[in-house]
Specification:
heterodimer, A: 311 residues, mainly alpha, MetI-like fold, 13 helices, 74% helix, 1% strand, globular, B: 281 residues, 14 helices, 76% helix
Chain lengths: 311, 281
């Protein structure tokens, strides 16, 4: 991508000369057609971003009208030293690492299996799209049902298999609540991750494997030296999307635990939403938003750099 | 593939086991919710388990749709998702065509900008947008969601449309240009008909992404008459009165089934569309 950007800069340099050339009218029409998209996105995304930066330096509580004033970095102090805030950041990071790791491993196994030649592969590919098509918050309710001690299948199957945990009331405990959240998130998102990885596997030429096999590479070496390096672009895309959405987890928390028990499943995104919509504290909400946005962009940039395709 | 020919019997049994696990993982949890929605209240309280209810009935659907008026939130969801998708398609088609044919030197910058927009957390936009909509009396209006959902619909739509237009041979258009057609006529008469399947893909994926939204609907829609389907089910589950899981699960099925059917019909297109949207970066 950096290469593409580089070319864009290069092309941009020629832009000025071309504006008076024969293609000028086409370019003008082009700019006219591009404008609505760019303007809409700048308004919907750019405006809130700048508004958050502004509000984050203010005392600004909507239900406390007329008291808005500049308070320097106090909102940021709350973000970086408040006990609730710090524990939420810790929780969110831990949750992101665990859920992305689980989903990536399962997704890769699914993708490798789905890539083989077998009867009914169309059916399997359609089946894995089912969880993807379920709205996130609805999948959360689905798993709330399935983990319900009386109605759900989880405790029932644990009981049938004589495994421990058949009597667990999942949403009463901290770790058991996280388990429900992790499972709901993995169910909804792993198939999508698998499909992205699968589309990457499909463009790896077969003769590379054949060549590696002739050279005496076993199945594990072929996976390590052929599959993984060539899969890098898909891995990059999959990990960026999954990491960001795990880091920003909200819907699942809202519907399953509401942040509880106590504050045990309170994540940064949840704090952010509560600051805006429950406490109407736009200063603190703005500060959380700014830090969250910068973190998200840093995560994206980090992946783009670390996993840059080596071609 | 040689790997497959070499696979032993045990290996292929293991392979089919993985495939079976994938199928169960994807479908069984949904199936369980489906049968729970068909159970009667008595069966729920007695915790009867099995792969089919003892007395399957559509009673909970009756309660959901007749007493709960669930068609309204479904219609609201369709309206806002379709509205945002329509706007995103129109702007997306024009912009994608411009990037592919008219202003190629803006291509990398615009696509990069749109990609970067996709990395902005939507949760951080909730507050400021709420504030604006509140000040212009836009809360509880369909337009507030339609405009906001463009965040979901425009980026993915544009990426897919660009990848589709890229595949249309330039020569076909050049012939028309020689005959005196303007760029917009070429787009409408030649490019669009050829790109129709791809436009369809972009529409389905945008629609599903908007349909998936919860946080904006939760924040902007406080009037139950304007609830979207996901918001309506969540509020059903958090009502202070005892609500049975069979009704909530009927809501889960009713919200999901139309999308699942859509996905199954357009499965191939969606997979290739997601790949185009995701991998061409």
């Amino acid at each position: 991508m950096a290469e593409v950007r580089g070319k864009a800069v290069e092309r941009g340099l020629h832009l000025r000369e071309r504006l008076s050339g024969p293609e000028a009218s086409a370019e003008r029409l082009g700019a006219l057609l591009i404008a609505p998209t760019v303007i809409l996105l700048v308004l919907i995304v750019g405006y809130p971003a700048f508004y958050n930066i502004y509000a984050s330096f203010q005392y600004f509580v909507l239900t406390d009208p007329g008291t808005e004033h500049f308070i320097g970095l106090q909102n940021y102090t709350r973000v970086f030293s408040g006990v609730d805030s710090l524990s939420a950041w810790g929780r969110t990071i831990l949750y992101t690492v665990i859920s992305v790791a689980i989903q990536f491993v399962i997704g890769l196994v699914f993708a490798l299996a789905m890539h083989q030649n077998y009867r009914g592969r169309g059916v399997v590919r359609a089946a894995v799209l089912v969880p993807w098509a379920v709205p996130t918050v609805v999948s959360a309710l689905l798993w709330k049902t399935n983990f319900d001690p009386r109605i759900g299948f989880v405790n029932y199957l644990l009981g049938v298999a004589h495994l421990p945990g058949a009597n667990t009331t999942w949403l009463n405990g901290v770790w058991t609540s996280w388990t429900v959240i992790l499972v709901a998130d993995a169910w909804k998102n792993t198939p999508f991750l698998a499909l992205i990885l699968l589309s990457g596997l499909q463009v790896i030429p077969d003769d590379l494997y054949e060549q590696a096999q002739i050279d005496g590479a076993g199945i594990l070496r072929r996976f390590w030296y052929v599959t993984l390096p060539l899969l890098k672009p898909s891995i990059q895309v999959a990990l960026i999307f999954r990491t960001l959405s795990a880091f920003l987890v909200f819907d699942v928390i809202y519907a399953i635990t509401g942040g509880g028990p106590g504050n045990a499943t309170n994540t940064v995104a949840f704090i952010n939403w509560r600051a805006f919509l429950v406490d109407t504290d736009f200063g603190y909400g703005g500060a959380v938003s700014v830090v969250l946005t910068i973190s998200a962009l840093l995560i994206a940039v980090a992946y783009l750099r670390i996993l840059r395709p080596s071609t | 593939m040689t790997a497959i020919r070499a696979r032993s019997w045990a290996g292929s049994a293991g392979f089919y086991l993985v495939i079976l696990v994938i199928l169960l993982f994807s479908l069984f949890p949904f199936y369980w919710v489906l049968i729970t929605s068909l159970k009667s209240n008595t069966e729920l309280t007695q915790a009867v388990h099995g792969l089919w209810p003892d007395h399957a009935s559509l009673n909970s659907y009756n309660q959901l749709f007749v007493a709960g008026n669930f068609l309204l939130p479904l219609a609201n969801s369709v309206l806002v998702a379709a509205g945002a998708t329509a706007i995103a398609l129109v702007t997306g088609i024009l912009t994608a065509y411009a990037l592919v044919r008219l202003a190629q030197n803006a291509r990398a910058a615009v696509l990069g900008f749109v990609l970067a927009i996709g990395f902005f957390p939507v949760i951080a936009m909730v507050g400021p947008l709420f504030f604006v909509y509140r000040n212009i009396n836009f809360l509880n209006s369909y337009l507030s969601l339609i405009i906001t959902y463009l965040i979901y619909a425009i980026p993915i739509g544009l990426w897919i449309l660009v990848s589709i237009f890229d595949e249309i041979p330039k020569e076909i258009e050049e012939a028309a240009t020689v005959d005196g057609a303007t760029p917009l006529q070429v787009l409408r008469r030649i490019v669009l008909p050829l790109a129709l399947p791809g436009v369809f893909t972009a529409a389905i994926i945008s629609f599903i992404l908007c349909w998936n939204d919860f946080v904006f609907a939760l924040s902007f829609m406080s009037d139950p008459n304007r609830y979207t389907a996901p918001l309506a089910i969540v509020n059903l589950g958090q009502s202070k009165y005892q609500v049975f899981y069979n009704i909530i699960d009927a809501g889960v099925v009713a919200t999901t089934l139309p999308i699942v059917i859509l996905v199954l019909i357009a499965q191939r297109r969606i997979v290739s569309g997601l790949a185009a949207g995701g991998l061409k970066g």
